[in-house]
Amino acid sequence: MKKINIRTSHPYDVVIERGAVRKCGELIAEITSSRKAVIVTDDTVGGLYGETVLTSLRNSGFECDIFTFPHGEQSKCLSNLGDIFDFLCKCNITRSDILIALGGGVVGDITGFAAASFLRGIDFVQIPTTLLAQVDSSVGGKTAVNIKGGKNLVGAFKQPSLVICDSDTLKTLPRETLAEGMGECIKYGMIRDEKLFELMESHTLDTLDEIMDEMVYACVDIKRSVVENDEFDKGERMLLNFGHTLGHALEAWHNYTDYAHGYGVAAGMCMITDILAPDLSDRLKKCCEAYELPTGTDIPMSELLPFCKIDKKNEAKNINYIVCREIGKGEIVKVPFDEFCRLMEGK
Ligand code: NAD
Ligand code: MG
């Protein structure tokens, strides 16, 4: 078992261990005095791992119920949140009980926000089952739901009490969903850790399982250090946005349908590296290709740039972009938006 302690305002452990899902009850019993829990999951993950988690919790003395909703981003919404609250009431969940998010980022984000707001806050545990959720969304305490006005616009900072990463669960992921998670992993290597990048570039999507635990550990550890320094996203945490400025623009151009976030991140990293650090471009693109990720787009930059403007993290006139001029060394650069446009259009 590997463990990473995250020292945020509420410190917690991330446990990385194959087979951990089967003994999650024991792990959770160590971090709470309550013996009452509700598992929140989606229908796909619930069908695969719901029984296992339920059994483990009951064997550890928990009274436990499970709330299942349809998989997909459209479930990360206020009406589903309302249904979760109603279910918690029906189960007589009190402030000392615990919620368990079993699934990908969608389940983690909505369950985290439910935990942040139900009875003004109760504890929750993350059991992330996608690569993206293990290396990114389950750690760091950002929780949210989507509203008509945009993605993740309503949420809270709420750190989990424990994160349990079992890489065996990643074996049932569709190939494309696994590949998508690699977009964020390659990002971590680029911004902070050349050794991690070398590990990834020496494998492919087909041999990824061989390095999975080592890679997940390294990625979570990078997220840990960034989040510990900037829990509430006011500075350094922006580094995690490498590839995301153009990546978000690509997602938005596609109307947030049929274009995965991880693909946007990969293409966005390659595009900005092509322009600002061309010497690194080949290596980065080869690595993305090995994990079946895009390395660019045919959409003209002039059509993408308007979508960069509306990124909610950017102040009105300026834009923060991330560049890696060496592998393992990300930098945050703040420039007026017009200058960013000129740079990206090669003017
Ligand atoms: P997801 O939760 O929708 O999962 C993707 C699909 O995989 C779903 O259909 C799910 O049912 C299925 N699935 C999950 N685990 C599986 C498994 N082990 N085997 C088979 N199928 C499985 O998507 P995601 O990519 O995990 O997360 C995306 C969400 O995460 C977005 O809403 C995004 O905004 C959010 N996010 C949040 C943060 C954060 O810091 N909170 C960071 C990044 C992304
Ligand atoms: Mg991302």
Features:
binds nicotinamide-adenine-dinucleotide; 347 residues; binds magnesium ion; Dehydroquinate synthase-like, alpha domain; 2 domains; Rossmann fold; alpha/beta; globular; two-stranded antiparallel ribbon; single chain
Structure notes:
By secondary structure, the chain is α/β, with parallel strands linked by helices. The protein folds into two domains: 171 residues, 3-Layer(aba) Sandwich (Rossmann fold); 169 residues, Dehydroquinate synthase-like - alpha domain (Dehydroquinate synthase-like, alpha domain, Up-down Bundle), CATH 1.20.1090. Helix content is 46%, strand content 20%. Strand 5, helix 4 and strand 6 form a beta-alpha-beta unit. Helix 6 packs antiparallel against helix 7, helix 6 crosses helix 8 and helix 9 packs across helix 12. The chain is globular and about 65 Å long. The N and C termini lie far apart (52 Å). The mean pLDDT is 96. It binds nicotinamide-adenine-dinucleotide and magnesium ion (MG). The site of nicotinamide-adenine-dinucleotide has 27 residues, from helix 2, helix 4 and helix 5.
Mean pLDDT: 96
Distance between the termini: 52 Å
Radius of gyration (Å): 20 Å
CATH architecture of the largest domain: 3-Layer(aba) Sandwich
What sort of overall outline do the alpha carbons produce when their principal axes are compared? globular
Q: Which ligands does the model contain, each kind named once? A: nicotinamide-adenine-dinucleotide, magnesium ion
Give a short account of the largest sheet.
7 strands, mixed
β-strand number: 11
Count of structural domains: 2
